[in-house]
Design goal:
This protein is of the alpha/beta class. It has helices at about 10-15, 20-30, 50-75, 80-95, 100-105, 110-125, 130-135, 155-170, 185-195, 210-220, 235-245, 265-275, 290, 295-300, 320-325, and strands spanning about 140-145, 145-150, 175-180, 200-205, 225-230, 250-255, 280-285, 330-340, 350-355. The chain has a 9-stranded mixed sheet, sandwiched between helices. It binds S-adenosylmethionine.
Length: about 350
């Protein structure tokens, strides 16, 4: 796994930019509201489709249609977790992503070529279905450790499993509570519970259907996962819940969920840091563009388009918040890895940020 060590000069330099330098950097790439830099002031709201209410509506139907219905059918037949997990990832891609639908319906150049290859294989006696062929033979764009490539869905889903397990192993201590913020259907909560059985896991998710998926898997495999209704913009109950945990070590994790909130409120981080716990934050979020304007990084990390205006578009202030917490001596940063991983597109890679509360 390629990762840019914080000791490297360029990573240090980006972390130590002044607030004004970072704001100017953001403003050159997207529409940014300075008044919201550490959280939207009272009375200011996100653009219509970016409110938590709208995000919940979108994800309630998305997780039900792409994962919930599939799990309801498959879960009782599948005894091995890794098989269920992989097949859920495949199914979500095939029905939930535009690339998956293009391939399945044999539309577009890529879909037609894949279907032609499948037909030729069938003529030569190959047995599997069209979906199986896509899973094993598609050439999907990805980014791994900052490097672009193309590989099959099967390989990319296995990379998700490996990357996550390796990453968490690096930071895991005895007696840890793993908190998955914006956990969706439980992709990484359930993986964590399966690979690290001594871990307690909290899956904090906005959508009801996402939490229902996680609960189905938890019940079927006897995992130590609790689900919690959670909104990044209203974090009081979560912080209270975490303060009650007897586990001294917390890993606060997110994968492509902070992206859903244009401006996070820095108080969420301040209150988490205020807990009487050892705390490590591990975030994989599409913020390469917030870190650097190097064209090689911008190739796989697209800033929110200006048409979404100041109060819409994917997250704009995570790196600004981390820089602020670092300046104030509240945290130390362990890793910054722009364009760490993208397994279904090469334009919106997740960058890795790992930091911990200063003792
Ligand atoms: C792209 S999905 C990622 C889900 C999961 N982390 C994964 O890796 O599969 C984004 C998730 O963020 C959640 N989300 C959106 N807005 C949120 C908010 N304001 N607070 C908490 N979660 C939110 C959505 O419901 C959705 O499940």
């Amino acid at each position: 796994m390629t990762s840019i060590a914080v000791e490297s000069l360029s990573a240090r330099r980006t972390l130590e930019r002044s607030e004004e330098e970072q704001l100017r950097h953001l403003e050159t790439l997207t529409a940014f509201d300075r008044a919201s830099k550490y959280g939207m002031p009272e009375g200011v709201t996100q653009s219509a489709t970016w409110t938590a209410y709208e995000r919940k509506l979108i994800h309630d139907s998305y997780w039900k249609d792409t994962v919930g219905d599939f799990l309801a059918r498959e879960i009782q037949h599948e005894k091995k977790f890794i098989t269920l997990w992989s097949c859920t990832n495949y199914h979500e891609f095939l029905v939930g992503s535009s690339m998956g639908r293009t391939l399945q319906t044999a539309k577009g150049r890529r879909g037609k070529i894949t279907y032609l290859m499948y037909t030729l294989r069938k003529l030569s006696g190959h047995k599997g279905s069209h979906s199986d062929f896509i899973i094993e033979n598609s050439k999907l764009p990805y980014v791994d450790g900052g490097v672009e490539g193309a590989a099959s869905l099967k390989y990319l889903v296995s990379r998700r499993w490996e990357c996550f397990s390796e990453l968490i192993s690096r930071y895991l201590k005895e007696d840890t509570l793993f908190v998955d913020l914006g956990s969706g259907w439980g992709r990484y909560s359930t993986l964590a519970a399966s690979v690290f059985p001594n871990l307690d896991v909290i899956s904090a998710e906005l959508s009801d259907s996402g939490r229902t998926c996680t609960e189905m898997i938890t019940q079927a495999f006897g995992f130590r996962i609790q689900t919690v209704a959670f909104n990044y913009l209203d974090w009081g109950l979560l912080v209270e819940r975490l303060s009650q945990s007897r586990r001294p070590n917390l890993i606060v994790f997110s994968n492509h969920s902070i992206e859903q909130v244009p401006y996070l409120n820095i108080r969420l981080f301040e209150e988490l840091i205020g807990l009487d716990k050892n705390l490590r934050f591990i975030h994989i979020e599409p913020i390469g563009w917030q870190i650097s304007n190097d064209p090689a990084i911008l190739r796989s990390s697209t800033p929110p388009l200006r048409k979404f205006e100041e109060w819409g578009g994917y997250n704009k202030n995570l790196f600004l918040i981390v820089q602020n917490l670092l300046r104030r001596g509240l945290i130390d940063v362990d890793e910054v890895a722009p364009n760490f991983l993208a397994t279904d597109s090469n334009r919106n890679a997740g960058s890795l940020l790992v930091f911990h509360k200063k003792a």
